TrEMBL record:
<dbReference type="InterPro" id="IPR029787">
    <property type="entry name" value="Nucleotide_cyclase"/>
</dbReference>
<feature type="region of interest" description="Disordered">
    <location>
        <begin position="188"/>
        <end position="240"/>
    </location>
</feature>
<feature type="domain" description="Guanylate cyclase">
    <location>
        <begin position="84"/>
        <end position="127"/>
    </location>
</feature>
<dbReference type="InterPro" id="IPR001054">
    <property type="entry name" value="A/G_cyclase"/>
</dbReference>
<protein>
    <recommendedName>
        <fullName>Guanylate cyclase domain-containing protein</fullName>
    </recommendedName>
</protein>
Length: 268
């Protein structure tokens, strides 16, 4: 089949977090719930089965939508319904299901065996990237993470729409295999996803700032601390304390701010 048969389609790749630790029966229930949540979300946007190419991925699903399906519905009502379906399932289940979703758009070819194209590869890698996995680790109370390509964010998400909240997305670089792309991360009901700080030596703590302002991060980079000097009166000798470093040799120390108070009791 010629590549000329490729059609621009929205691609969705979903994957269940932590499924490798599940037993066989738990995985069966998980798969039932996953397919049920996807079906409910498609029904909410009026997408019928014949408008979806869907492939099983064991603990995930790969899908490509009919070109006529508005992508705004998928990043809005579809995601919101999927989120609500997960919440409902998890409220009554002993095995909590959490999903990572990667979305992208571009030329996709169905060669009779499955879907082929860079748009498919990128959607899968956005979903499975170390950044996406780490973000879910940093948001243990969240059931759903959406990662969209830069193209999809710029051309669809940023335009807004019903249940579309572009101000709650944050960007990060995704590097996996041959992929090195800017992507956008969103967790429903959070003002911003807790993206990991991938700078060398950075602490990966929940809620850590990613920097870059209101669009590219969740706060400005921290400024350098001011140089603060404090005078130390050490029984007649004077030493200085600046930037957490003592200068001078002292024994008994009395710390004064402003004018020195008289030493009446001899205590240090």
């Amino acid at each position: 089949m010629s590549s000329a048969a490729a059609v621009n389609r929205l691609v969705v790749f979903g994957d269940v977090c932590g499924s490798g630790a599940m037993g066989l029966e738990a995985k069966r229930r998980m798969r039932d719930a996953m397919y049920g949540a996807f079906a409910e979300a498609y029904a909410a946007v009026g997408v019928e089965v014949d408008r979806i190419h869907q492939e099983d991925r064991g603990d995930g699903i790969l899908a490509a939508l009919d070109p006529g399906v508005p992508p705004t519905l998928m990043v809005g009502t579809w995601i919101d319904t999927l989120f609500q379906s997960l919440r409902e399932h998890n409220a009554g289940s002993a095995h909590r299901m959490r999903l990572r979703i990667g979305m992208n758009a571009g030329p996709v070819l169905d060669d009779g065996r499955g879907l082929v194209g860079r748009a498919v590869d990128l959607a899968a890698r956005l979903c499975d990237s170390p950044t996406a996995r780490r973000t879910m680790e940093l948001a243990p109370g969240s059931d759903l993470l959406l990662v969209v390509s830069d193209w999809l964010y710029t051309n669809v998400v940023a335009e807004g729409g019903r249940y579309v909240e572009p101000e709650t997305y944050r960007s990060a670089r995704v590097r996996i295999k041959e992929t090195d792309e800017q992507a956008w991360f969103h967790i429903p009901r959070l003002p911003a996803p807790p993206l990991p700080d991938d700078r060398p030596g950075a602490a990966h703590a929940p809620g850590a700032k990613t920097g870059g302002g209101p669009v590219r991060g969740d706060g400005p980079p921290p400024s350098a601390p001011p140089r603060i000097g404090t005078q130390i009166n050490a029984r007649g000798d004077v030493a200085s304390f600046e930037n957490n470093v003592f200068h001078g040799e002292v024994t008994g120390i009395r710390k004064h701010r402003g004018a020195a108070a008289p030493d009446t009791d001899g205590a240090a």
